[in-house]
Amino acid sequence: MKNIGPVFIKELKHHLREKKANIMMILFPIALIVILGAALSSMFNTTKIELDGVKVLYTNMGGSQLEQAFTGFIEQAGKMGVMFEETDDSNLGIEMVKQADYSCYVLLKDNPRVIRLYKNNRYNFEANLVETLLNAFVERYNAISEIARENPAALADVMDETDKEFYYIKSLDGKRKPTSTDYYSVAILTMVLMYSSIAGMSSIRMEKSLKTGNRILCSPVKKHEILIGKVMGCIMITILQSLMVFLFSKLILNAYWGDNIGVIIAIIASEAILTVSFGTCIGFTIKNEGLSVGIINTVIPIIVMLGGGYVPLDTMGEFVQKLSVVSPIKWTNQAIFRLIYNSDFSYVPVSIAVNLIISALLITVSSIVYRKEAVW
Amino acid sequence: MKMVKIVELTKKYGDVIAVDNISLEIDVGEIFGLLGPNGAGKSTTINMITGLLSMDKGSIWVMGKDARNSTNEIKRNIGIVPQDVGIYEDLTSLENVMFFASLYGLRGSELKKRAIEALEFTGLTEHINNFPRKFSGGMKRRLNIACAIAHRPKLIIMDEPTVGIDAQSRKHILQSVQMLNEMGSTIIYTSHYMEEVEEICTRVAIMDYGKIIAEGTQKELMSIITDQNSVWVSISGEADRIDKTELMEIPGVISVEIDDNTVKINNSNNINNLDRIIHYFTEKDIPIKNIENKTPDLETVFLTLTGRKLRD
Ligand SMILES: Nc1ncnc2c1ncn2[C@@H]1O[C@H](COP(=O)(O)OP(=O)(O)O)[C@@H](O)[C@H]1O
Ligand SMILES: [Mg+2]
User: Tell me, what's the ipTM?
Assistant: First the structure.
């Protein structure tokens, strides 16, 4: 393991000195975010119209106290354009949501007192909005019940306050929907990141074409040390490039990245590992350079498209949405958007796991091919 | 203990037998020359010693250890100057040498000191912080050597280290090979330049079509052909009027070669035929500028053994 260091440092030097590629990997995404953010802003500024069409189905099996409060919630949500319809059949409710007739289905239960939200599996801003509203309601409801038990007299005040706050503070949050710049800051970053696989590929090819690879193989360094050093160097550079784009979009373009920046960076780092591993694997397995570039330039647009990298997935057909599960970018984008707009961490482990598992497979293939290269 | 011992080594590429059942022994302290035309199998042999290529048959022992088993122990003590220059154009000379030397375990100030020494040794001190992008072919070749010696290997293998460079760089390289040898390294030097091998090597093996066709000190090799001499006739032109087959008919003539305006005739020592050779030229009315009686060289040895020139 002691020889990983020199290989890693050398790899960093190669990349840092390749000014054109660095500028490309930083300025190109920034330019894209600015251009797409401006050009497609109309696609995203339809919040009100879309809100009018939000239909929610619900079944109330909760107690009367919950029912009362929930009726108030329905009224208020209705003023924002979210229409609630009641049904007694919870199976029907779930089915309707599956068929996308309704944005989501809410089931209120008593004992234990829970509010359950069912939504269509696809990436859906409307359902997310309802979820956020509902979260705000549950928080408020719990607070009120607490207060009511302690001091009945205080209840009215809070209720008054609720009216105001629910509308003006919580609903602001609820309404948060990505602007085009917000959307493309994420989508372009995760898209351009995939092209770092070309850097990973060149890093492997370079040693062969310069004949330095043979020289390294003649030295007493172990192959896995070389592989790890090189891959880690590429990953490091890729993460640095992503951070530059991220900071620019956040600080200069004021793109909204939510409150969980650390977790988002972790997801992006896992994608950096994926993209470099992909390039490395191509570099080892495909001998022909033209073909290598060709494969990368074919595969990436497909998985990016399936990941909603060019236009949001919910604007595409159902078939594409179903197919999207094969794209690691879909998982990455979904996890990031859920995190930003819903503070929902549930997709984070999946997205990171998908990226890391695929990476492990690609690196395994690479090391098998590499092991065969010289004899001892 | 031999520095390198090769026993019945064979390597095939499909139908081509690149190395054909060769056996060699190289002593500690030698500058061992592996001489042969392009495609003779020199690089293939070298690459099997350094472990880049697998052997089809036979075995290689380096410093008494079986190359198949004691990988890293052997690799640590070898410095390889590959036939194809292997350096990074976007790293400075110093960074290049330091990187390769670090692969042999050198670190810190010791690493830097040795790298600077290696660059001094190859005459690149002034270019220590320059990028090889802008280097001449000769400078790149010298850096290629510096990258192989900073870790002070016991065995330095140089595969055609002077291909395609200017006379001055070549002279510098040949001198540094001798210095490295004096400093204690055993050297294997492959080349298809007879003059280089003649100049520096203590012992030579001549390779052709994968086989070793002769081996020994230069003296020993010359003795193969002591029953021969070579007459070089310089003319001032009209070389096209000379008919090789007519010359070959003169008793004692073994081979004839025409090199620009020099006619090189190999003769048997047993027959005096100089008068008949001169007669051939005067009869044809071709003026003779000079006649030299050459002692045989490795080129002649190769020519005698194979009937071909080293370089075509
Ligand atoms: N990778 C290879 N594939 C097929 N044939 C090869 C390969 N490398 C070398 N050869 C053949 O093996 C023979 C010896 O080549 P090489 O060892 O490079 O000779 P030298 O170094 O003496 O010029 C040549 O006939 C060459 O064409
Ligand atoms: Mg060769």
Answer: 0.80
